[in-house]
Amino acid sequence: MKKIVVEGLKYKYPMTEELALKDISFEVEEGEFIGIIGKNSSGKSTLCQALVGLVPHFYKGAYGGKVLVDGLEVRSHTIADISLKVGMVFQNPFTQVTGSKMTVYEEIAFGLENIGLPREEMRQRIDEVLKLMKIEHVKDHSPFDLSGGQMQRMAIASIIAMKPDILVLDEPTSQLDPAGSEEVFHSIQDLSRQGITVVMAEQKIEKIAQYCSRVLLLYDGKLVDFDTPEKIFSRDDLKDYGVTAPVYTRVCKALGVKKQRCDVYPVTLEDAELALRGTIK
Amino acid sequence: MTFLKSISLFVDRKSFVHDIDPITKLYYILFAIIIPIILPSFTISAICVGISILLLLAAKVMRKTLPVYSFVFLVLITVVIIQGLFRPGNETVLFHLGPFAMHKEGLLFALTIALRVTNIVSAFMILVLTTKPSTLVESLVRKGMSPRIGYVIVSVFQIIQEMMSTMSTIMDAQRSRGMETEGKLLTRIKAFIPLLGPVVLGSLINTKERAMALEVRGFNSRNLKTYLYEEKTFPYSKAIQAALLVLTIFAVAWRVFL
Ligand SMILES: Nc1ncnc2c1ncn2[C@@H]1O[C@H](COP(=O)(O)OP(=O)(O)OP(=O)(O)O)[C@@H](O)[C@H]1O
Ligand SMILES: [Mg+2]
């Protein structure tokens, strides 16, 4: 089933001249893990926000085309309605702290209180996401006393607890160390395997290559390509869009080693290793 | 900056006063304000103050009241002196203060005012010192106050606290680079002012992002809100509220018929 349908989406922020999104169309199936890549200011965050209705409802501005999330037309529904289906985690973990709760536990409860979840289920879900995001040990701390990484985990936990069908994440691991990022990607992959549709804007290209089923490449507000990581990162014109392929791909490209029985270069360490061993034999 | 670090005066203790729900405490404040208006006698006000002080003692928060009381008394003493010396209608001279005479009428009037103010301040302190601000606001939201207003009140408390800690982090950094941040008041103010810009501005810019983050967490949802914690109830709340009501009616009757 199509979870996300975007048709000819155009958007201009108020008081700006140029369109931030230019005629974007794509479709996402249930349970996919989509990565959005592109250089700075290419429109990644804007596209993410268009999926939860912050664009256009929060910013206003000029809007054209259509976005359907789980059959719901974004334009004609409130953010509150959409947020029951689509959860969004923002880039800056500090501004996602509500500032009205004394502990991490209560902070995660905030969204659940708003949507009117019964107390029993609330507690069960909070315990679940605390474990999933590995922040059980800080559940009684003040949200402001957490490290950047812990705050980021809490922000993700707060959204996951609301059990959206679609999870949109805008650079959710910017404050995490490599090991922490790896853990978070792993947890999100788990969710995706349970059938949640994931869309993530991210700069960490190696992670995108490793975890995403498809990658959406943006440049200057336009959709350049939307395909498997192998196809995207094997493109010869990547540099023109301000994106570099994963290091494994670059090495294999330099050596002219393609993925076995395919016309694309490997994008993960495992595939690169397989391909390189194949040539040695 | 420690003096600003905690803007909430709440003192976490175990006592039956702490266990009483905030709404009942609000009723008590109302009661403490109304009774001396209905029955303006000196004795009644004194009894009200006495009850409040007993409750503050029972709550084990008397020490925290001292700075507040000292401040209030400082203001009230000026009132007493000015009224005693200069109140129109002053006749009976009690004693002389240099060239001025202290009068009985002004003094009594000022003492009544002082007692009433002390009474109200004491009643408020019972609420403020024994109730977490967030608990109070949550009770009010449950009683029908807009959750938006509730959010603003609680988050202002929290965010000011956050700003204070940002500020002290920066001050520490400046001190370690040799800037003087302690000592004379003027030095302190000089160290403090350049921080206001970035800290306050930073908080303002964050407001937009925070508003978006609240939106996607269903802050404007039309669903009926639920609460993580059960409402704090005190077994004798209704009894206390009823007693306060009966006493008020009694006071009105007293005033009207006697
Ligand atoms: N609130 C806003 N008001 C006006 N213009 C904006 C606003 N937010 C973004 N833009 C503009 O829209 C374009 C796309 O920005 P966007 O933040 O979506 O890019 P991005 O790909 O997320 O960049 P980054 O990698 O830096 O996060 C940019 O030209 C930016 O200047
Ligand atoms: Mg961005």
From TrEMBL, chain A:
Which ranges carry the ABC transporter domain?
Answer: 4-245
GO molecular function terms noted in the UniProt entry: ATP binding
InterPro entries in the record, alphabetically? AAA+_ATPase (IPR003593), ABC_transporter-like_ATP-bd (IPR003439), ABC_transporter-like_CS (IPR017871), ABC_transpr_CbiO/EcfA_su (IPR015856), ECF_ABC_transporter_ATP-bd (IPR050095), P-loop_NTPase (IPR027417)
- PROSITE patterns registered for this protein in UniProt: ABC_TRANSPORTER_1, ABC_TRANSPORTER_2
| Pfam short name (any one) | ABC_tran
Localization: Cell membrane
> What membrane topology does this protein have?
Peripheral membrane protein
Highest taxon of the lineage: Bacteria
Which keywords appear in this protein's UniProt record, sorted alphabetically? ATP-binding, Cell membrane, Membrane, Nucleotide-binding, Translocase, Transport
Q: Which family does it belong to?
A: Belongs to the ABC transporter superfamily.
Q: What protein name is recorded for this chain?
A: ABC transporter ATP-binding protein
| Organism in which the protein naturally occurs | Neobacillus kokaensis
